[in-house]
Design brief:
It is built from ten helices and two strands; from the N terminus they run ααββαααααααα. It is mainly alpha-helical.
Length: about 325
């Protein structure tokens, strides 16, 4: 009887994984369909425009030869990838000065990886591997501590409001809402205004860059401080580096909060555990203590999700706002 129930539980787990995998693949497929419908026409139009301009250039300047022009274009593209741009009869450098190198280091150990800039020498690539190998764990530890401090600040403010106004049930929700709104302002809504001023981007482009950066997606289509026609203040990249560090910690807490919502509403995460515990107790199984421990853990998670977070159990990002 016990073996049959264990087999049934394993079968439920397998079906749960299959359903989750199907939802995952379906979500990716939906994203691919939408993106293809939105971006494919623009890609075709840009390719046709480029081909027309090339043909017009060769037709208006008969002294130019197709292969020579192609080599020039490829050289310009490669130089741009290395951070070199043409300005009249001179070239513009600056991506590998100290501030640019510092910003590249930030993008490497935070795993953003914009892709617009990368080491071109063998020694530089080897150093980048070693640097990221130790830098990524260091970055995760620091983000853990920053998130820990954020949670402690929310808890401290919640306890202070409870003492002053004697709010018992509304305090936690109020503080979490304030933390969410404050984070939205500091890390997502206000920075695009700075990017509009310094980079010349629209607000939508600045907001897009903010989320893509803080979520560590890092496409590299928008990167700060890379326009050779603009002069940037010395503090600009340093401030953006701090914004990335604290913004990643905040967004990690928000994403974990979303994960908790999905897990708490999933029958595979909660109901199955309680059912397994009840079956173990009914069987008088020797492993019933494991079921009780799982129940304690489950209850502890529910308590954390409903009330202030226990700061001593936080490891980034295991708790949420």
């Amino acid at each position: 009887m016990v073996a049959a129930r264990q087999q049934q539980r394993r079968r439920r787990r397998h079906w749960g994984v299959l359903v989750l995998l199907a939802a995952y693949v379906g979500y990716l497929g939906l994203g691919a369909v939408v993106l293809q419908a939105l971006e494919r026409p623009a890609e075709v139009q840009a390719a046709q425009q480029l081909l027309r301009e090339r043909l017009e250039l060769l037709a208006n300047h008969t002294c130019l030869q197709g292969p020579a022009l192609q080599r020039l274009v490829e050289g310009i593209v490669q130089a741009y990838k290395s951070g070199i741009t043409l300005q009249g009869n001179t070239t513009s450098l600056g991506r590998w000065d100290y501030s640019g190198s510092f910003f590249f280091s930030i993008s490497a150990i935070t795993t953003i990886g914009y892709g617009n800039l990368s080491p071109s020498t063998a020694v530089g690539r080897i150093f980048c591997i070693v640097f990221a190998l130790f830098g990524i764990p260091l970055n995760l530890v620091l983000l853990n501590e920053i998130g820990h401090l954020m949670l402690l600040g929310v808890q401290h403010c919640a306890r202070h409001l409870e003492e002053v106004f004697h709010w018992q049930n509304k305090t936690s929700f109020l503080m979490k809402t304030c933390a969410l709104v404050t984070g939205l302002l500091l890390f997502l809504l206000l920075p695009p205004l700075l990017f509009s001023d310094k980079e010349g981007w629209s607000y939508e482009e600045g907001f897009y860059y903010s989320f893509i950066t803080l979520s560590t997606i890092g496409f590299g289509d928008y990167v700060i401080g890379m326009n050779p026609d603009r002069t940037y203040p010395s503090w600009y990249k340093n401030v953006i580096s701090l914004w990335i560090l604290f913004g990643m910690a905040w967004l990690a807490l928000v994403i974990k909060f979303c994960i908790n919502l999905l897990e708490s509403s999933s029958d595979f995460c909660q109901c199955n555990k309680n059912t397994e515990m009840a079956e173990d107790l009914m069987d008088g199984n020797k492993n019933s203590m494991t079921g009780l421990q799982n129940a304690d853990i489950c209850c502890d998670k529910d308590t954390k999700a409903k009330g202030p977070v226990d700061s001593h159990s936080y490891t980034a990002p295991t708790e949420a706002l």
